[in-house]
Amino acid sequence: MGRSVGKRNSPRSPPQIARPWPEFLEVGVVPPMNALEILRETVRILRTDPSTFMSILALLICPVSAALLSNTIIDAAVVGAVSRRLVLWVVTSGLPLTHFLKQMCHHLAGTVVSSAFCFPLLLTFLLLARASIVYSVACSYAGKKIVALEFFGTVRRVWRRLVSTYLCVCVSISGCLALFLALLVVVCNAFSGLGYPPEIVVYPALFTVLVFSMVYAHMIIVCNLASVISVLEDVLGPQALVRSVHLIKGQTQAGLLIFLGSTIGMAFVEGLFEHRVKTLSYGDGSSRLWEGPLLVLMYSFVVLADYMMSAVFYFTCRSSSIEVLNGDDHSLEELGKISIELVGAK
C-alpha cells in the first residue's frame, strides 16, 4: 500500500501494450505461425463450431456476395461512362490502346462502381459478419461458449469503433488509389514528353504498377488487421491503423501470403461467375440455375476464410508482440543489474 509509484532503482517502466476486452483476457498465448499454419488453425476453429460460422456465411456474407457478383444493383451505364473516361485517360497519358488495357479499364471501372453502389451492404452486412467472426474466433481461443445476448452486447459496444475504422480504411485505400493514378500519369507523361514511343512508355508504367501492387498489398494487410483490432481492443480509426502497423512487424510475410491466397481465390470465383453465369458461352444457359448459387457460396466461403485467417493472424501477431516486449523488459532489467554492479565496483 505504501509502495511509491516510480522507483529510482528501475531503469524504465515495462512497455505498455494495448489490452483486449475483459472477456477475452483469458485467451492464452498463440504461438507464431506461418501462412500454412494459420490456414490449418482456421480449419481447426471452423471444425470446432461449424454451425456458428455457417450461419454467419448464410445470413451475412452470401447476400453481399450475390450482389457483388451479379451486379444486380449496379447501373451498367455508369460503368460504361467510367470505363470510357479511363480509356480516354490511357490514351492521353501516352500508353498504347490495346485490348488488354481496355479490359483492365472496364474491370477497374466495374470494381469502383460496384464498391460505391454496394457500400451500404459493405457497411452493414460485411462489418457485422467481420465482428461476428472475430468474436467467434476469440471465444474459441478463450474457451467460451458463444451466447447470443453477450454477442449483441459486444456488437453494440464495438460498432462505433468498427464503423469509424472502416471509414478510415476506405479513405486510406481511396487515397492510395488516387496517388497511384496521379503517379502513373506523371510517369507516362514524363516519358512521352522525352519523345519515347508508346511501346516504350509501357515499361515504366508496368514498373509503377508493380511497385503500387506491393504497397497496396501491405496496406490491405494493415487495414484488415486494423478492423480486427477495432473489435478486440479499445482503439478506433487512425489509432487502429497505427496499432496494426506496430503489431504486424515481423509477420509481414505471413500476411502477404494470406492476402495473396484470398485475392487469387476471389478472382478465380469471379472469373468463373463471369464466364459461366453472366456470359452465355455454351449450351442454353440452363446450368445457371445451379452454377450461380454454387459460385456465390464458393465466393462467400473464401470471404469467410479470409476473415477467420485475419482474426487468427491478429492473435499470433499479438503473441509475437508480447514476446518481444517481454524480451525487451528482461534486457532492460539485465542492463540495470549490470549498471548497479559497475557502480558498486567503483
UniProtKB/TrEMBL annotation:
Q: Which UniProt keywords apply?
A: Membrane, Transmembrane, Transmembrane helix
Task: Work out whether the entry's keyword set contains Transmembrane.
Answer: yes
The keyword Glycoprotein belongs to this UniProt entry's keyword annotation = no
What parts of the sequence cross the membrane? Answer: 53-74, 117-143, 163-188, 200-232, 252-273, 294-315
Report which superkingdom the organism of origin falls in: Eukaryota
Question: Mind telling me which PANTHER family this protein's record contains?
Answer: EXPRESSED PROTEIN-RELATED, OS08G0107100 PROTEIN-RELATED
**Protein name as catalogued:** WD repeat-containing protein 17
Organism the protein comes from: Cocos nucifera (Coconut palm)
